[in-house]
């Protein structure tokens, strides 16, 4: 299982780097390093994002080890748990990047967005399970993929890299690749809940329904 996770992850990330011509890779790495440094050295602390990352790590550790604590803690943390290492890595990396959204929106607005998106995704999952026999998929998919929608609309592209003479790869493409990998890893269940969460994110960010925005 571990070998398959490493193989899938390596294929996607190495392919994304090798499609750019050799003389362009240096600038690609510089952009990635600059974005990481900018995120990590920002003045805001993003406490909600840090709490989500910790909940994902602890919940995943509990799920993998089969550990149990008091029922109240289990009920809070187990929905944040992933059963596989690659899913945990992708989720934590995405949540780390999405900290910049909290800094743009303010923690109060960010936690409202996160709570509504996760609750709506859970409700739709439950309805789907009751009507079709769909098996519930654990993990904070509702949070991650609704934030991915917000990330797409609110965070600008800083740089693009030509691939076969076309500017189709940007610094945001690596985030989308990680999200794609997370969405397909558990097959139909992860793909379906990812689509549900993306739909919820589109509703929440829609201006026609008074959606969330990072400005204002």
From TrEMBL:
Alphabetically ordered keywords of this record: Membrane, Signal, Transmembrane, Transmembrane helix
Xref: SUPFAM superfamilies: Rhomboid-like (SSF144091)
A cellular component annotation (GO) from this entry: membrane
MF-aspect GO terms: serine-type endopeptidase activity
InterPro entries in the record: Rhomboid-like_sf (IPR035952)
Signal as UniProt keyword: yes
Parts of the chain that traverse the membrane: 76-98, 110-129, 141-161, 182-204
Signal peptide start-end: 1-20
Main location: membrane
Membrane topology classification: Multi-pass membrane protein
Record has Transmembrane helix as a keyword: yes
Subcellular location: Membrane
Gene3D superfamilies per the UniProt record, alphabetical: Rhomboid-like
Protein name as annotated: Dolichyldiphosphatase
Provenance organism: Rhodosorus marinus
